[in-house]
Each structure stands twice: as structure tokens, then as C-alpha cells.
TrEMBL record:
Biased composition (Low complexity): 415-425, 434-461
Biased composition (Basic residues): 462-492
Domain of life according to the entry: Bacteria
Protein name, as recorded: Uncharacterized protein
Biased composition (Acidic residues): 327-391
UniProt feature, compositional bias: Basic and acidic residues: 392-407
UniProt-annotated stretches for the region Disordered: 306-492
Length: 492
């Protein structure tokens, strides 16, 4: 066998081995295309490796020493890695059920047996029998091989052999393995027979000759479906069923049992879909409920056992927890205390304002009294001088009395500022006042000074009021006291 034929045989053997072990799921009709893809990937490397191999030398041991030299071992390992990557990324592989290292192991074993085992000589025809096990062709073929009658199954296998250019020579019901003979030495003939067998067994399911395991559910509708509305409803549900077949891998069917009961059926078409059929049924039911606009109540469905708790979930505690302590009363008391503090602070501020006003009034009264005393003394001095001038021509010169020293005006005391008064008043108060009230008292004078509400100093008030008071009081007092003083002077 030349290098090209060897590459074809290797690629076919790799695909068959992986399918036989259940490690990959090949798309329908994609086995031949997958084998050709692997053949194109390995052809150049096989052509470089084959001339340096010992035809019948079989070396046991580690993979790095299997092919005799380290250089060939490295090339084979690199080729195995490339083939594994091609398998994982191929569009002809629908699903992979194992890890990368397992795929590499199977590919390496196939290449080792094919490269180091006995190989047919170049030019000999490879027309030996082909053995096909139905369990390696997928979920549908395997299930049909178990359920189909023996006569129906044999007829289907015969038709598959004729379409691939071969002949059915035997079938083992226990192993579910069919044997075919080929008329040509084309290495693709084996793959063509496998595809033909898978197609024929699928046709038995589509023709309803063999039924696959299905999941059936009955649902009660919330409203009655009239006969006139069933035509449009049938089209909409059929579109949902076709989408379930494309996306979920399940054949869906439905029918109305009476006016209010809807029967749904799902038939998985792969082993993986058979494991997930419950979730597919849930999706199917949800979409139909959206179409009907009503929830569906399930009927005649066996109860499932409750899920066991996880190990990480702790069992519920039976110890009675103490009743939660009510904290509403405490919060209300705190609110009342806060309101009382605010009221006390407001009262303190009002008292402070009243005391400041009283101090201002007292200071003004003291200033007025001092001004009045000064005015009276000035008037008395003026009157004495007038009397002396009048008595001088009629009387002898009398010894002049020592001039009376005018009384010194009362020392003006600067008015205490409001800030100082507040500070003194704060010092006299009881220390039981709260810090918040003291803070507000200390800040009150500063705020009044900033807003311009502080009282003017007493000296400024005195300077402003003195001229007006003198002008108003002096004439009146002088007019009242002058006659009395003149009469007293004449008596003297």
C-alpha cells in the first residue's frame, strides 16, 4: 500500500475507533468528510515518516521509543497533536464526550498499530469483509437495532449494502453487528456503508415502523378552544415543534384530546437529548403557554421524589430562637429626649435674649441719669453767677466765697459687650446645662455681631442722646428754678 492509501486507511481507522469508544458524535453524513479532513492533515507527514520505518519491527515501551528513533517519535507525537486539534475543531463533529488526552491516546494507538504492524503489499486489493456495529452509529441506530423486528432490520441492512456497492453477508443479533462484503478496494467504501446503514435505520423511525422512547405530558387548558381557532393554533404549535427539532434535537408532536386537554410528545434523537428531555419538555410547554396566553396545568404526571439536600447544606435548627426585642419604645424615648433638649435650648436662647435686652435698658437708664446730673450742676452754676451780677451794684463788696468746685461727672463705664454678658451669664448658670445649649449660647453673640443685630456701645448712645436731652431739658429746668432762687437772694 502506498503512502496515500496508508493515509486514507489511518484516517478511517481513527474515526472508527473514536466512534466505537463513544468518544465523539459525528454529524449525520459527515464521517467521510471527517476522514478526508484527517487524511489531508497527515498525508505529508506520513510520506516523510514511512520510508524510515522498519516494516515489521514492533517495539514495546514508552511512546517516545516506540518507532525506533527519537526523531521519528517526535514527528509522530507532533502529528498526533495536530490530528487531535483538527478533530476537536472540525465542523463534522457534533459533540465530544471525553478529554483531549484520551483522544490523543486513541489516535496514537491507531497510528502505532497501522505503521508498525504487518501491512499489505502495494497493488493488492483490500476487498475483505467489513464489520459494522450498530451501537457505534449513534443513538438512533443503536435504539432501532434493539427495538426493530429481526426481519425488518435485515431488510434495511440489505438496502444499505446495495446503495454502497456491497452485500450483506451476516448479522449478529447479540452483538448487533452486520458483516458486508465489498466489490471494490476503495477505502471510502467502509464509510459509505456506515452512512447508508445509519440512514436506513433513521428512515424506519420516520416511517413510524420503529418508535423511539418518548416523553409524553398532558396539560389542561384554562379556556376552551373553538373549532374555528384550531387551524391557526395548529400552525403556530407546528412551528414551535420544528424549532424544537432544530435546536433541541427532539422530535415534537402534539394533539388535542377533547376541548381542554393538550397532549405533548417529545422524542429524543441522541443520547445527550435523552438525558435532557425533561428540560426540553419544559421549554416546549412554556412556548405553547405563551402562544395560548394561559398557564398550563399539568395532568397525569408522576410525582418525582424530592431532591436530597446537599452535603454543604446544614439541617434546619430545632432550637427556638429568642423573640426579637422590640426597640420601638427605646427609639421613641430617644426621640422625646431629643425634642426636650431642643425645647430647653430654645428656652435658654429666649432667656438669654431677654437678659441681654434688660442689660441694655439698664445701661441706657444709667447713662440718662448721669447726663441729667451733669445738666443740673451746670444750670446751678449759671444761676449763681447771674444772681451775683444782679446783687453787686446794691450791696457792698462782700467777701467772695470760694468757688465751688464742680462735681466731677461720674466716670463713664464702658458698656459690657453682649459676648461678655453672655459669657458671665453662662458662668453664673448651673453646670447642669447640656453641652448643646452651651454651644448655642456661645455662638449666639457671634451670630448677632455678624448679622448686625448687636447693640451699639453705651458711649456711642450717650454721645447721640446728650445734645438732644440738653436741648430739651435745660430751658425747662432753668425756667422753673429761676424765680425761686431770685426770691431767696433778695431775702439775703
Amino acid at each position: 500500500m502506498n503512502e496515500r492509501n496508508l493515509s486514507r486507511r489511518l484516517s478511517t481507522s481513527i474515526v472508527d475507533a473514536l466512534k466505537a469508544h463513544g468518544h465523539i458524535l459525528v454529524a449525520r453524513g459527515g464521517a467521510t468528510a471527517l476522514a478526508r479532513e484527517l487524511e489531508d492533515k497527515m498525508a505529508a507527514d506520513i510520506a516523510a515518516i514511512t520510508p524510515r520505518l522498519e516494516p515489521w519491527a514492533l517495539v514495546d515501551g514508552e511512546p517516545t521509543t516506540t518507532f525506533g528513533t527519537d526523531e521519528i517519535d517526535d514527528q509522530v507525537e507532533e502529528l498526533v497533536a495536530n490530528l487531535t486539534s483538527t478533530l476537536m475543531e472540525s465542523e463534522h463533529v457534533e459533540d465530544i464526550f471525553t478529554e483531549d488526552n484520551v483522544i490523543k491516546r486513541d489516535v496514537f494507538r491507531v497510528m502505532r498499530d497501522a505503521l508498525l504492524g504487518p501491512r499489505p503489499e502495494l497493488g493488492l486489493e483490500d476487498d475483505g469483509p467489513v464489520h459494522v456495529r450498530l451501537d457505534t452509529l449513534g443513538y438512533v441506530a443503536s435504539t432501532v437495532g434493539k427495538r426493530a423486528p429481526a426481519q425488518v432490520l435485515r431488510e434495511s441492512l440489505t438496502r444499505a449494502a446495495q446503495s454502497a456497492g456491497g452485500k450483506l453477508t451476516g448479522y449478529d443479533p447479540e452483538l448487533r453487528e452486520a458483516t458486508f462484503s465489498l466489490e471494490s478496494s476503495d477505502p471510502d467504501a467502509r464509510l459509505e456503508i456506515e452512512e447508508a446503514v445509519a440512514d436506513e435505520l433513521s428512515d424506519l423511525v420516520e416511517a413510524k415502523v420503529v418508535t423511539l422512547p418518548m416523553l409524553e405530558r398532558r396539560f389542561e387548558l384554562q379556556r376552551k378552544i373553538e373549532a374555528g381557532a384550531r387551524g391557526g393554533l395548529r400552525q403556530r404549535i407546528d412551528s414551535i415543534a420544528s424549532r424544537m427539532l432544530r435546536e433541541g434535537g427532539c422530535a415534537a408532536s402534539w394533539e388535542l384530546a377533547g376541548d381542554r386537554v393538550l397532549k405533548l410528545k417529545l422524542t429524543p434523537l441522541s443520547e445527550q437529548d435523552a438525558l435532557e428531555v425533561d428540560s426540553h419538555m419544559t421549554d416546549f410547554k412554556r412556548e405553547i403557554a405563551v402562544v395560548l396566553g394561559d398557564p398550563l396545568d399539568e395532568l397525569d404526571v408522576a410525582q418525582k421524589p424530592a431532591a436530597a439536600p446537599l452535603r454543604n447544606d446544614a439541617p434546619p435548627s430545632r432550637r427556638r430562637e429568642p423573640a426579637p426585642v422590640a426597640v420601638e419604645e427605646e427609639s421613641e424615648d430617644l426621640d422625646d429626649e431629643g425634642e426636650d433638649e431642643d425645647e430647653d435650648e430654645d428656652e435658654d436662647e429666649d432667656l438669654d435674649g431677654e437678659e441681654e435686652e434688660d442689660l441694655d435698658d439698664e445701661e441706657e437708664d444709667l447713662n440718662d441719669e448721669e447726663e441729667d446730673l451733669d445738666d443740673d450742676e451746670d444750670e446751678d452754676l449759671d444761676e449763681d453767677e447771674d444772681l451775683d451780677e444782679e446783687e453787686a451794684p446794691s450791696k457792698k463788696a462782700a467777701p467772695r466765697e470760694k468757688p465751688r468746685k464742680p462735681a466731677e461727672p461720674a466716670t463713664e463705664q464702658p458698656a459690657a459687650s453682649k459676648a461678655r454678658a453672655v459669657a458671665v451669664r453662662g458662668a453664673k448658670k448651673e453646670p447642669a446645662k447640656k453641652p448643646a445649649a452651651a454651644t448655642k449660647k456661645a455662638s449666639a453673640p457671634a451670630e448677632k455681631a455678624a448679622t448686625g443685630k448687636a447693640a451699639a456701645p453705651a458711649s456711642v448712645k450717650k454721645a447721640a442722646k446728650a445734645p438732644a436731652k440738653k436741648a430739651a431739658k435745660a430751658p425747662a429746668k432753668k425756667a422753673a428754678k429761676a424765680p425761686a432762687k431770685k426770691a431767696a437772694a433778695k431775702k439775703r
